[in-house]
Amino acid sequence: MIVEFIKSIDLVLFRAINQFAFRWNWLDELGVFLSDYLVYFMVAILVLSLLKFRSYWRMVLISLISAFVARFVITDFIRFIHHRVRPFLSLNDSNLLINQVNQSSFPSGHAAFTFGLATVVYFYNKKLGVAFLIAALLVSIARVFVGVHWPSDILAGAIVGVFSGWLVNRLLKKN
Hints:
With 175 residues, the chain is an all-alpha fold. The chain has eight helices and no strands.
């Protein structure tokens, strides 16, 4: 019963966001940029911050480790034990703006990665961390907009990313 309720909310939220795809060219291009490329800018900003603030090396290292653990360890493990079909494969009326992805959609790897980065950055620098959290949210919403994730995939990915950021930061800060 709870699963059906979540699926119905997922469907309503997915359609509410994805319905705007293919309406305006500028919005489609923005959605694709946020969905696929903003994450590279986030990593570049992190690495380039080392040029100005050498003391950020620990923050950069821990945030990158956290993001990789979130995306390539925790997310892949969950996908191994629980497969979920992507919205563009299960809905005839979805709008797909990017190339098809042939793997499970739950949880979102992009959300896990970006929230893993953002969480650690927030622990070290609140202002930069808020900017990274906003960027992670934009990436996540864009993944629904372009048609490759359900909203609950995003929520689960964000939880994985925040947990990974907290855990990796806690483990590596002690040593």
